[in-house]
Amino acid sequence: MAQVAYKIDIAVIGGGQAGLSSAYHLGQFGLAPGRGFLVLDKSPQPGGAWQFRWPTLTMRTINRLHDLPGMEFAEVLDPGETEVRAAEAVPAYFKAYEERFNLPVYRPVTVRVVCGRGDRIRIETDRETFSARGIINATGTWDAPQIPYYPGREAFKGRA
Questions:
Q1: What does the pLDDT look like over 20-62, one tens digit per residue?
Q2: Which residue from 112, 126, 115, 134 is spatially nearest to 38, judged by alpha carbons?
Q3: Longest pairwise C-alpha distance within the chain
Q4: pLDDT in tens, 58-81
Q5: What does the DSSP 8-state code read for residue 91?
Q6: 34 CB contacts (<8 Å, ≥6 apart)?
Q7: Prediction pTM value
Q8: What angle do CA 85, 100, 95 make, to 5 degrees?
Q9: 5-155 falls under which CATH superfamily?
Q10: Contact 22, 12 (CB under 8 A)
């Protein structure tokens, strides 16, 4: 029996910095949260890969963490704090960001298959199936980095 696919315009795959930034701009361009665009995130809560960072990584040691569009990171920090744990502060920022801009983040959901279906794209997850006009791949590189094929790479043994 064929599974029903929920129709959306744009699926954003990944709820980290790139995914939230993309979702923000889709909303700014007039797409409606939910039917117009949806963010699919495998993490159990806001924070992208940051929620799984080392407890010793503090905001003083993060290199060049940038604000997301439309909201400064400093807005969620206690002004008296001089050092905060990244695994706590960044997820708090992402959560506040999602709420402020009413971003439709669906989690936890794991995307299993993305394939063409006529003039649409089918996105099969571990929970539902979606049909989209387009996708934005914002999955990042923390979990399963993709190494592109380069001719001769299988023969390369490293430098002597």
A1: 999 999 999 999 999 999 999 999 999 888 887 887 887 765 5
A2: 134
A3: 58
A4: 776 555 567 899 998 878 877 777
A5: H
A6: 8, 104
A7: 0.82
A8: 30
A9: FAD/NAD(P)-binding domain (3.50.50.60)
A10: yes
What is the number of other CB atoms lying within 10 angstroms of the CB of residue 93? 25
- C-alpha pair distances (Å), 109 with each of 112, 117, 147: 9, 21, 24
The residue count for the chain: 160
Give Cα 110 distance to the centre of its chain: 12
Are residues 42 and 12 in contact, defined by beta-carbon separation less than 8 angstroms?
no
Q: What confidence tier does 11 reach under pLDDT thresholds 50, 70, 90?
A: very high
Q: Are strands 37-40 and 105-106 parallel, antiparallel or unpaired?
A: parallel
62 backbone dihedrals φ, ψ, rounded to 5°: -80, 130
Tokens of 159: 């430098």
The two three-digit tokens of residue 70, written as one number: 């439309």
In the chain, where the domains are located = 5-155
Our measurement of the distance from residue 81's CA atom to the centroid of its chain's CA atoms, rounded to an integer in Å, reads 27
d(CA 16, CA 98): 11
C-alpha–C-alpha distance, residues 14 and 16, integer Å = 6
